[in-house]
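Project channel, design review

CF: Before we commit to the Streptomyces polychromogenes constructs, I'd like one complete example in the thread so the newer folks can see what an input/output pair looks like. Taking Xanthine dehydrogenase molybdopterin binding subunit.
RD: sounds good, go ahead.
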Amino acid sequence: MSQLSQRPEKPAVGLPLPHESAGLHVTGAALYTDDLIHRTKDVLHAYPVQVMKAHGRITALRTGPALEVPGVVRVLTAADVPGVNDAGMKHDEPLFPDTVMFHGHAVAWVLGETLEAARLGAAAVEVELDELPSLVTLSEAIEAESFHGARPVMLAGDVDAGFADSAHVFTGEFRFSEQEHFYLETHAALAHIDEAGQVFVQSSTQHPSETQEIVAHVLGLHSHEVTVQCLRMGGGFGGKEMQPHGFAAVAALGARLTGRPVRVRLNRTQDLTMSGKRHGFHAAWKIGFDAEGRIQALEATLTADGGWSLDLSEPVVARALCHIDNTYWIPNARVSGRVAKTNKVSNTAFRGFGGPQGMLVIEDVMGRCAPLLGLDPTELRERNFYRPGQHTPYGQPVTQPERITAVWEQVKENGALADRRREIAAFNAAHPDTKRALALTGIKFGISFNLTAFNQGGALVLIYKDGSVLINHGGTEMGQGLHTKMIQVAATTLGIPLHKVRLAPTRTDKVPNTSATAASAGADLNGAAVKNACEQLRGRLLEVAGTQLGANASDVRIVEGVARVLGGDRELAWDDLVRTAYLQRVQLSAAGFYRTEGLHWDAKAFHGSPFKYFAHGAAATEVEVDGFTGAYRIRRVDIVHDVGDSLSPMIDIGQVEGGFVQGAGWLTLEDMRWDTGDGPGRGRLLTQAASTYKLPSFSEMPEEFHVTLLTNATEEGAVYGSKAVGEPPLMLAFSVREALRQAAAAFGPAGASVELASPATPEAVYWAIEAARAGVPSRTGTSALSHA
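CF: and here is what came back for Xanthine dehydrogenase molybdopterin binding subunit:
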């Protein structure tokens, strides 16, 4: 077993602990970015001047009327920017634009003594616009050939020969919608300037180092003149990886110009209308199967709705291409990706980062084609699972194909699927107007950033004279339990009780040049860096302990806060050991670092091994559908998920449950609507609140919900044998959509192929039922299928 994955005696990792801030969360004592204004004197409030048109060139911007509003202190415009007027890493996102690119685009910001004064001031700003034609839908952008960024192509084998050898060839299209992050805490930042001109920004950001970089270049400063701190986030899900930077820059610019602290905090409507979503996709595909139902070839074009700027759309598309295979061996493939440029908010990272979109395409294909091949969908999926020695279409070996089967078979056993399918068949035969169905789907999700440089982490660990330990790392806490795991890693590595370890807020002046807390790599990267720092400290302390105990340092172990010699009875308490080390002038701080080894990726050739490993899981979902309305309920869910050797089982099970429910929301409930008409509201987001945008809640939770973590699943080369857990469980929700498809099919003749919209709302399910009853494919406007 590798040093990184091996666990010592009596480790703190693996214990089922509650979230380290759980008590603060439930009592309301946990501080978030916007709570800090109540502890800050003379704060100014920033409010955006939004233009409610989808596209147009600004011909006049009059700020004078705003300055006449009582309480308004200043209006920020492009003329105030001392550095670069851009909030993006691609330099295509002007912070103060001269062209409105989406409905609700902020063109200026008003600073007021109160939020109400700033709001009234923003309403008083006069903007004149030369309106321009707009592209609101993905279909419009494709027709207009409006694309930007890279257009990768993934090639494997001989596609033409693969289709020639196929006994069955199907073609189809599939369009599926965006998803709103709807984190509980909206975007927020608080900036102030100290007496030396140092900029300090508190930001709700998943990527403090990049927020620091953007703030610095907007202000014309170097990074060492800007410090960014993130206490915690009330959710992020990827929506705070790139998008917080501009809001932090507005706050910092206001503070720099006025000399007073400036607060930016979007209300819910502003957050929904100004920040990006999960990318909606259009897929056109062609697939070939042999006579036994094994995939021979796949050709597809995936088009993502990028919105008005690139943001992270290029790597999102790249990851979609990398995951279109999911758990299936595709020997011959030609898959193209592109980013459509539309007049909508700039879409961004969202849990899974393109992986869910790519995997949804192939799962939709399998669900639609199985009846046409005369196969049960479960059987079709099993026949195409990866086997030992096979590799992905982009060339990475699939090193643990046995885990695809292991989680699958364990779900079958845990959920008693064979017995329940017989019960479902009997129920359906007796109930003409209500049908049940049970679907089983699996996942294979690559863990690492596709951009190899991001696969590094840092930490700073301090031991004080009294034996207490403070850890700093580059990851941010958005509720996912990363800080809890880092405390467990530090306590395990040092061999001390958990109560000895405390964690400091994430700050750029403690750990520099960090990567975003994203790609499910937070625990892998930061955990290994924390472990590295603690190993340095433990090594120094073992030398001191060896001298004190009259033994070689290699024969000393520190367990539960006591240093002991192997085979002896002499011991030294941790606090005494630390005090002795201090008196001997031994350094009691260490900077840790980790870089993920074994990664290589050629983005142009679209080939290599971009992932450290794959996470696996399988889910079986049983649904019941009403034939009159399309309404449904999730009766039972059984999940087996591979997290390696869990660092913190209670945290990981919570992540699996939450990811599944969020995925089910994307696939069945969350129906984003935009005004696509030619009237004055064209481009307006119509689902601007929880009243019109339906989120999963307790009523959508499965009536029975069983989550099991795969056992004996050590991941060599990862911190204490664990695997990432943040993103992969979201894709387990494919089983919900596939169960709904099968339930709709049960209303029609046997062997019918059902096309189902995404999201599969009750309305969409109803139309699928009607099509099944009529014995024809549904035409929901989102998909089409033909047998070539």
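RD: helpful, thanks. The radius of gyration is 27 Å.
CF: The first helix runs from residue 22 to 27.
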